[in-house]
């Protein structure tokens, strides 16, 4: 088994692996940043427009809930296919890493919206009431009470999402994207080279572990526990 | 202490307790206020046609069982709740008619402390107090000094850099008080401020509240279900039951009265435990065949003087129930005594007793 790894032509696979890792980081990073930002806003809108919320608005709340519930259950591989016309219109091409990023933004936005909402729901409403009683404006409450008070759990939620983005990015190959997933299938599985596939597995495991460690560390630092 | 510099002469600010007893100007006025909550299971009237006035400088207590509407009532003062009908006027503004944005400047003149403290866990003790100042628009340069001054006032200067979860309940509530006082409010609302605390920390927090009123001249509205709170800090009290104010007046009068309205009686009796219930009367009856009367100690000295003459007049008396407690500024109590002796002597004795305090026959 170990011999299989050593016998691989690393002069070929080395650079290939580097490129694949670069592609994965590109896809995960951009979809995380953009989906994370849009999802954060949507999550706050979902939470604050609930009945009794500081921006309570039944229509807006219901509308966003419906959209989130419609898109979230679509399996990612189907979402990629279904979004094709939109992807071509927006990105200019239906294939490649950037097209994959576009699809991943859709998936991550709605996943993050729910995670943000769920973490905000567990906030102590008394703290928000105290800020209102002090005469804080609603925007001020969002940025200086809700966000900092929910930050620890939010970091853990975002860590969960970034790891599922690594998972999604592995499907990039079906529309011509690269990344570790594509590397494992094209170079390993399709060519009957299990050692190559296993190399990809090891890289992904290390990558995900690193992300989880950073997430846990940051959350612990914020929550001081 | 620099804080005192912000505080005009206490007598001007809080004439509610001057010797003349003249009340200060009204700062909170409820005028026929009702609040109805609509729900799937029908409507609930949390506050039912309440009219009351709180004067500058006084400590006004609202007491009642949980669910009596006290929380809704106090939240209408700073507009956290809106009345369904009637008006609430605070510091000259009709808060019941103001929008959320227009309420903000009024809220900055009203501090609030909560049963569950409601401190931000992501900020230190100093950070929590500082937040209130920043919200009220204090310039950064003045905040630091003000935070130190406030923490000094509540005795937590050395805890400034701690986080709320590192504090005891009583300490958290003192931070809550410091935060509520940060922007120099004229009114402090205490929403069951001591209900989550044990008896010893309760008295620690109550003494801070008393100082807030006496040293800083802040008008306090305290809602509670604990008679202890009313007893130790309030000047006037309203008893709430099922959304209505069933009795109100000076604390001493309420506590030393024997003739409560039917609604108020149930609460006051339960809370004070100052009069024997039917079971206790039966037990007392088994021991003594004397005439049972309750005497309220409006003037403890006068009542004592009359009781002291019992022996020479041929009247035997025995205290069978009750006791004496101290309110903020006087002693009150309700004694149940059993009297024996010549019928006329007892009548005569009761007449004298009636002049010293309120006397009421115990129902057989």
UniProtKB/TrEMBL annotation, chain A:
One GO cellular component, as annotated: plasma membrane
Top-rank lineage group of the source organism: Bacteria
Classification via Pfam families: BPD_transp_1 (PF00528)
Key words, A-Z: Cell membrane, Membrane, Transmembrane, Transmembrane helix, Transport
GO biological process: D-methionine transmembrane transport
Membrane-related topology note: Multi-pass membrane protein
Main subcellular location of this protein, as a coarse class: membrane
Signal peptide location: none
Subcellular location(s) per record: Cell membrane
Transmembrane regions: 25-47, 59-82, 88-113, 155-175, 195-219
Domain ABC transmembrane type-1: 21-215
PROSITE patterns tied to this protein: ABC_TM1
Protein name according to UniProt: ABC transporter permease
